[in-house]
Design goal:
2 copies of one chain form a homodimer. With 79 residues, chain A is an alpha+beta fold. Chain A contains 2 helices and 3 strands; from the N terminus they run βαβαβ. The first copy, chain A, starts with a strand and ends with a strand. Helices cover 35% and strands 34% of the residues of chain A. In chain A, strands 2-1-3 form a 3-stranded antiparallel sheet. Chain A has a single domain, classed as 2-Layer Sandwich (Mth169, Chain: A), CATH 3.30.1280. At the A-B interface, helix 1, strand 2 and helix 2 of A face helix 1, strand 2 and helix 2 of B. Strand 2 of chain A pairs antiparallel with strand 2 of chain B, so a sheet runs across the interface. Chains A, B: Keywords: ATP-binding, Cytoplasm, Ligase, Nucleotide-binding, Purine biosynthesis. Chains A, B: Pathway: Purine metabolism; IMP biosynthesis via de novo pathway; 5-amino-1-(5-phospho-D-ribosyl)imidazole from N(2)-formyl-N(1)-(5-phospho-D-ribosyl)glycinamide: step 1/2.
Chain lengths: 79, 79
């Protein structure tokens, strides 16, 4: 089973990396770009009996390691 | 128009960040995890007349700034 985890900074948290990208895009002439947010995507293969068990396991991985839940939110996708 | 750009290392390129995450997950007891790849997701709002023009513009941004096309591949999503 292939798992995909999307990790993003929570809406209220200042995204300095996103701001830097936004400024760089403006500098290159794309002035219509706004609200840039940069996140991480972590993909991996997982041995699991069923989708529900896999999702529970991946969520535990997020809470323990993949996301800093104080400032980041995450979304799990299984395929 | 909201654009989402997914940037990943190309398949042959060693993903050291992914390897580090994999080792950390193994260390925490998730030994069934394999083939971890870590990528970036860049989301932003874009002023564009139509979807085709927007996609062409975002692809140009990827080529110029958002992805290092020597070692990274990208995928554009528009919504």
């Amino acid at each position: 089973m292939r798992a995909k985890v999307h990790v993003f900074l929570k809406p209220g948290v200042l995204d300095v990396q996103g701001k830097a990208v936004e400024n760089a895009l403006h500098g290159l002439g794309w002035s219509g770009v706004e609200g840039v947010r940069v996140g991480k995507t972590i993909e991996f293969d997982l041995k699991a009996s069923d989708a529900a068990a896999a999702e529970a396991e991946v969520k535990q991985m997020c809470e323990k390691l993949l996301a800093n839940t104080v400032i980041e939110s995450y979304r799990v996708e299984l395929a």
